[in-house]
Amino acid sequence: MRAVQKIVRNVPPHWVGDGFPVRSLFSYQEGEAFDPFLLLDYAEPYEFAPATAPRGVGEHPHRGFETVTIVYQGELEHRDSAGNAGSIGPGDVQWMTAAAGIVHEEFHSARFSREGGTFEVAQLWVNLPAKQKLSPPQYQEIRSAQIPAVTLPHAAGTARVIAGELAGTRGPAKTVTPLEVWDLELKAGHAVDLPVPEGHTAILVVQRGAVQVNGSTRLAAVELALFDRAAGDISLRCESDARALLLAGAPIGEPIVAQGPFVMNSRDEIHQAIKDYQSGRMGHLT
Q: Of 182, 94, 179, 104, nearest to 139 (Cα)?
């Protein structure tokens, strides 16, 4: 079994814009421990009243990494300077490779804003290697129906394979570096061993319910475990019905220099990113 290196608990919430009450479970400020992952914001279920104007985050840039947004409840609308636009709802995923630079906005959909309801999303930032940081931006809109579900052994539940491979089933996301993103629904009283490639950083986030990890560590809602990179499975026993997100990826092993929405390899590259955004080289929303 893989040893648990770190547990994250009791993270206070904060608002991103006026539409995302999130808990930042880790960020790039923690260095290479989570490499290739840079940040994970989880917006746990929150009830929004009907509104006359959509809530969210207005125009802002990114460079040097990818954003992966998973919607669990509610609806999210996206628009960017590369001409991509769309709305995603429960079970859908938006995978945006900002790379050389993109400007975008994210708001509750017009329908969700009008009707109100429960909103729940997770957003992950994934680093890019230096040779890919200035490549053209890419955009993937992955619908829930495109994401295969694997039945876990011993009636332990199911895993939606968003990226990577589990039990011979591959997820639809096209990744720049080797990644696994599995959306887990786990059944109370059952156990499962999850195989993660040797050498990959592995992270488990419990979003609902509670699980025992490796027979000794208990994780409850909105808690995270970071594992070492040695060979071995992650052993879970579910105390109550639970939902969790398993993230794993090959470390990039390059310097991380970041400022706000830019993640590069040097301070000079950060300064250049700021200049390029301010001069309009990353585009604008029209």
A: 94
Residues 172-214 pLDDT 10s: 999 999 999 999 999 999 999 999 999 999 999 999 999 999 9
What dihedral angle (degrees, nearest 10) is formed by the CA atoms of 179, 183, 187, 188? 80
The pLDDT tens digits for 56-98 are 999 999 999 999 999 999 999 999 999 999 999 999 999 999 9
CB 192 within 8 A of CB 156: yes
- Return d(Cα 79, Cα 61) in angstroms, integer: 12
Q: What are phi and psi of 90, to 5 degrees?
A: -55, 125
Write out 26-86 in H/E/C secondary structure: ECHHHHHHHCCEEEEEEEEEEEECCCCCCCEEEEEEEECEEEEEEEEECCEEEEECCCCEE
